[in-house]
Design a protein that fits this description.
2-enoyl-CoA Hydratase, Chain A, domain 1, 20% strand, binds ligand LH6CIYWY
Length: 299
């Protein structure tokens, strides 16, 4: 994906100049006297406390924070920017959309498009995951809403997960319910988190766990009342930031490298696999039926 250099025009006609991961263009940035900074992009809101070295990314892609190509592009830029700025040691991921952390991959990106689009989209998904999973920062997911499929993967790629205690906020890899298959690297991350047997069960049935179940199976680390998600994430972050960075980062890398390398060594094949899978007539049909069901739910 042309993220390192070039020009990208987003839907609202806003043009951003990107060079070596530095966002030079139409970005609103404000710095308060108390060390607080706020970067605003269309779909990703970044708030940061420079003094504490902690940034918060809020997903802001209503109605459901689906991972559209435009969202992913903005998200990767923000992430790179924070990663390259040594001010930040910790990052909290959360949502600005009430009741939804993220609905996962944007089904409209996987339906009725051409092969080149599917390939570009999948590359962006891979890139997002690799950047999140291998981040040097401490990542805490403050999960304040439903978190199926790709939304769950983003949470699982963090170092720690705090989930709001609301039975509507279900989390899991539900791909089989859509008639699709979770890619091997989604599976690997789930296995690393909840173990092989529980992952096999959850993946085959496409289980979406309510908060108490998610805690029990080990998919999240804490379940707290909804109004305490952000404060809990912040206190967990403080605990983690007490560990010297170099030791924690090397340890994280030691734990995660093999899983990431598994994808890195076969990225192109993984893209081809996705493209040929998703472009099958039967898969297109399943996805369209699923999208239609979602739309009709309201009526
Ligand atoms: C051997 C192996 C071989 C091959 C494998 C190779 C490759 C692997 C292939 C494929 C893997 C692809 C991986 C995919 C992972 C994913 O993330 S798939 C996405 C899964 N997501 C979901 O199932 C979530 C669906 N959404 C919901 O359940 C609900 O919307 C949600 C609980 C999030 C919110 O509910 P609610 O608040 O009631 O909102 P609505 O349902 O009314 O939705 C509002 C509008 O948003 C639209 N929408 C919802 N989700 C999505 C989405 N993911 N993408 C696009 N659009 C979405 C919904 O249709 C409504 O639209 P409308 O207002 O009606 O226009």
């Amino acid at each position: 994906m042309a993220l390192v250099a070039g020009r990208k025009t987003f839907a609202a006609g806003k043009t951003l100049l990107l060079r070596a991961g530095v966002w030079l263009g139409a970005e609103a940035a404000a710095r308060g006297g108390n060390g607080a900074r706020r970067f605003v992009s269309q779909r990703v809101l970044v708030e940061s406390d420079v003094t504490a070295g902690i940034a918060t990314i809020k997903f802001k892609n209503p109605p459901v924070n689906s991972l559209s190509l435009e969202f992913l592009t903005e998200f990767i830029i923000c992430l790179e920017k924070l990663e390259n700025d040594k001010t930040y040691r910790g990052l909290i991921l959360t949502s600005d959309c009430p009741g939804i952390f993220s609905a996962g991959l944007d089904l409209r990106e996987m339906c009725g498009k051409n092969l080149a689009h599917y390939a570009e989209y999948w590359r962006a998904i891979q890139e997002t995951w690799l950047k999140l999973y291998l981040s040097n920062m401490v990542l805490v997911a403050a999960i304040n809403g439903a978190s199926p499929a790709g939304g769950c993967l983003m949470a699982l790629s963090s170092d720690y997960r705090v989930l709001a205690d609301n039975p509507r906020y279900r989390i899991g890899l539900n791909e089989t319910l859509l008639g699709i298959v979770a890619p091997f690297w989604f599976k690997d991350v789930l296995v690393n988190t909840i173990g092989h047997r529980a992952a096999e069960h959850a993946l085959q049935l496409g289980l979406l766990f309510q908060p108490t179940e998610a805690l029990q199976v080990g998919m999240v680390d804490q379940v707290v009342p909804e109004d305490q998600v952000q404060s809990t994430a912040l206190s967990v972050m403080t605990e983690w930031l007490a560990i010297p960075d170099h030791a924690r980062q090397l340890t994280k890398s030691m734990m995660r490298k093999a899983t990431a390398d598994n994808l890195i060594k076969q990225r192109e094949a993984d893209i081809q696999n996705f493209v040929s899978f998703v472009s099958r007539d039967s898969i297109q049909k399943s996805l369209q039926v699923y999208l239609e069901k979602l739309k009709q739910k309201k009526h």
